[in-house]
Design brief:
heterodimer, A: 251 residues, alpha+beta, Ubiquitin-like (UB roll), 2 domains, 5-stranded mixed beta sheet, 4-stranded antiparallel beta sheet, 11 strands, 29% helix, B: 159 residues, 4-stranded mixed beta sheet, 8 helices, 4 strands, elongated, binds iron/sulfur cluster, binds FE2/S2 (inorganic) cluster
Chain lengths: 251, 159
Amino acid sequence: MPIRFKINDVAVEAKPGEGLLDVARRNGFSIPSLCHLESVPAIGACRICLVEVRRGRRSKLTTSCNYEVLDGIEVSTDSPEIRRHRAMNLELLLARAPSSEAIRKLAAQYGVSQPRFGPIKYNPLPNCILCELCVRACTELGHHALTTVGRGDRKRIGLPFNKPADTCVGCGACASVCPTHCIPMTDTLTKRAIWGQKHDFVRCSECGAPVITKKHRDHAIATKGLPEDYYDVCQSCKQIATSQRFAAIVW
Amino acid sequence: MTAAKTIDPKRIDRVLARHPQGKPTALVNLLHDLQAEFRYLPELAMEKAASYLNVPNGQLFRVATFYESFHLKPRGKHIATVCTGTACHVRGAPKLTDHISREFEIPVGGTTKNMELTLETVNCVGACALGPLLILDGEYHGNMSPAKLDRTLKTIKRG
Ligand code: SF4
Ligand code: SF4
Ligand code: FES
Ligand code: FES
């Protein structure tokens, strides 16, 4: 049985157990968010995806990413009250991440340009808002190379035992999902530096472009049962080869 | 770290053997047990514990750094804990930490080179009327003063 409810007075359907934010987006409603990806478990860390949910006569503000949809709820994705709370949360996030372009832009949309708080005393990874998207992505991919360390105002993102992790394959997923782009990752043609390690790239045998780190390739081939030569050629060269084969058939 | 090298893996294994293998739920108990054995959590012990319980290193490290009661650095034979809660603070706790720091040449959180004494602080243990309070190896000493401190700590070897 699908779950039926309303978002901004529009009737929508969802599967039991789905998160409200995912359902809203699928139906074309836009809700801002910083710490949510459909592919990782939602933890409601950034508090930007706030919406109002009415159930019968009760109404509450809640984060939508980790709210499981229910039959008959009525959701508003925007209201002066919602905006006021998002603005407050953005002001707090801006104090943690004063030079993050993404946070500055979003905050500006809510009329916040200069936080009244901060600068915060402890943030060894500048601009990190502790949303744990990096940790969740790395964990979900099965690498388990990142974790939160400590608690309270000393909490930070770090490596197990504070040393480069054997299980980090240099995939770069953590850096690419980070909403504030605060994880240092440097790529050259031959190497990727991330989290205290240097990883050699596999280079495309056609064009020489870096394809994937060798360690990531070995891990992917071993765990996904891909052919040994799967990563020898980069995506764009593969596409060119495919279209040439295709052209040869057509003409 | 020199201290880590002297850890005997057999001692770790003996502690591990008292817990169910492959059971992530035993994590906190096991960490407490390891700490009881070594007075802190040596890295080797944490690594062995993670693979023994089949939890990722990161998950274990998250827990070990989350709870204040776990210590990741070697600690001394004796632990002097000065309460720096509000009541003890206004009754002169800072004088106590300063005094121990100076006498034993260690900062708060530090351990003497001879591994005899570690100086720590705690925020209120509910004995405010006794403040300022020193807890030495679990024993409470109330109404502390620097002079009284010298008497209480006099058997601890300097160095
Ligand atoms: S680069 Fe390393 S730490 Fe980052 S997601 Fe990949 S495995 Fe995890
Ligand atoms: S590093 Fe980026 S993704 Fe990770 S917790 Fe910080 S802000 Fe979030
Ligand atoms: S996206 Fe929901 S709390 Fe961050
Ligand atoms: S403040 Fe020290 S015991 Fe309460």
